[in-house]
Write a structure and sequence with these properties.
By secondary structure, the chain is mainly α. The chain has 18 helices and two strands. The chain is globular, with a radius of gyration of 24 Å.
């Protein structure tokens, strides 16, 4: 069999020097974590510079949307947390649906270990936080803060290890973090909502029905789902008292996840069209003939129909979330102004509850549940992993950052408690990331399943 050589497509200077490097940068899994960390670090630096007051006031600028008497006014900080972060939760919803349909969470046998680890990694940190804060009615609402895992940071640390981190560990941590995200969404929906406006909620339910019906009858146009999802469902939830990010997750679950053309038909159609293109009469000029144009359009339509709208959206929106939404959120929420009395706050129940909850609770919860399932023989370690890998994964799951900061903003209205929560989140996440990296690096030198 003669091996065909791939033809190298000539590149314009703008593609070679600008477009391709940007694509490589955005497709690098480590870079999103670095940008996120840099945004949080920049927020800390500015918050402790002469520009601190201007920086904090920036996020309080009021923005309004609407017309006439129908006007919705919120601060820039609220628009980021309620609006921009809805995009983040929408992508989480897409990932959840994909995992449940065709990923690690679709097979009960594969899902049981990361699912149980995620449950343990949520329950134990929440219990530890409450242990530190049981005597204070004002701070008990923060129990959801140490439950969260930042999937971007956690996986970013793993990708820093390259081939030294087994692919099975990346799959395990991804499934754990996605299950953790689902738990965080449920916690937000059930426990971090304000007074509910049932008229708006019923309106949202109406728009949700429209989206589900569109999916069932075969509507695949993503623009339709965007208009109804944002202009209807999200806006109704924003006015209902139930947090608007829940609408984003619900909208994501209505996006079609079925292909219009299966793999066999796709292969046959593309082969037929490719042969037809070869036989088409060339005109030997830079533009294609009408016949070639129609064939190329048919090829594009077949390729489009072989992809699900869900995967197209997830793939298209991931760079937006990784390089715009999350860094902007980190910049607007990660700032802490260090004061002379800051050291006294380190011993506060909120700081200790969040710090110990994340750093100890996550590890104990994740490793403890895995150990229990292995002991009961209800699950087996994935191929290529040993017990040290699981301990490392437990520490990486303790990187709460984005989700923990988000929940702390819902839990506390008092700025003092919010600052304390941020101190616990940032310090625990940094230590967890470093320790997790070192443990996984060392674990990869040990034999698997040991």
């Amino acid at each position: 069999m003669i091996k065909q050589k791939k033809t190298k497509i000539p590149q314009a200077p703008v593609e070679k020097w600008i477009i391709d490097p940007i694509k490589r940068f955005m497709n690098n899994s480590v870079m999103s974590g670095i940008i996120l960390f840099a945004s949080a670090f920049l927020a800390l630096v500015i918050s402790n510079s002469p520009l601190a007051d201007e920086f904090h006031h920036l996020w309080e600028i009021e923005f309004s949307i609407g017309f006439g008497d129908f006007l919705l006014s919120k601060s820039l900080h609220h628009w980021i947390n309620d609006g921009l972060m809805a995009v983040f939760f929408f992508v989480i919803g897409l990932e959840l649906k994909r995992e449940m349909i065709a990923g690690e969470l679709s097979n009960p046998k594969n899902a049981v270990l990361p699912l149980a680890a995620a449950v343990g990694g949520m329950a134990v940190p929440a219990a530890i936080y409450l242990l530190f804060n049981f005597s204070s009615a004002e701070t008990t609402s923060g129990w959801g803060i140490p439950m969260a895992t930042d999937i971007a940071f956690a996986l970013g640390v793993l990708y820093l290890l390259g081939n030294r981190a087994p692919i099975s560990l990346k799959i395990f941590l991804t499934a754990l973090a996605i299950t953790d995200d689902l738990g965080a969404v449920l916690v937000i929906a059930l426990f971090y909502t304000s007074d509910i406006n049932f008229v708006s909620l019923l309106t949202g339910a109406g728009f949700m029905t429209v989206l589900i019906t569109a999916n069932l009858i075969g509507v695949r146009n993503t623009l339709f789902y965007a208009i109804v999802g944002i202009g209807g469902l999200w806006l109704a939830f924003l006015m209902s008292g139930v947090h608007a990010t829940i609408a984003a997750v619900l909208a994501a679950f209505t996006i079609p996840a079925r292909v219009k053309v299966n793999e066999t038909i796709c292969t046959e159609e593309l082969t037929y069209l490719l042969n037809k293109f070869r036989k088409a009469h060339p005109n030997n000029v830079p533009t294609v003939t009408d016949e070639q144009l129609h064939i190329l359009e048919d090829i594009r339509n077949v390729a489009k129909n072989a992809l699900t709208p869900l995967q197209r959206l997830e793939h298209a929106m991931h760079p937006l979330v990784a390089f715009v939404v999350m860094p902007v959120f980190a910049l607007s929420n990660g700032g802490i102004t260090f004061t002379a009395g800051m050291l006294q706050q380190l011993a506060s129940p909120v700081v200790l509850g969040v710090f110990v909850g994340l750093l100890l609770g996550k590890v104990v919860g994740v490793v403890g549940m895995v150990w229990l399932l292995l002991k009961l023989k209800w699950a087996t370690l994935p191929a290529g992993l040993n017990k040290q890998h699981i301990i490392g994964a437990g520490f990486l799951a303790a990187i709460g950052f984005t989700m923990s900061l988000f929940i702390s903003g819902l839990a506390f209205k008092d700025s003092e408690y919010l600052v304390q929560a941020k101190i616990g989140i940032l310090s625990a996440s940094i230590i967890a990331g470093i320790v997790g990296y070192l443990i996984v690096k060392k674990a990869s030198q040990q034999p698997p399943n040991s």
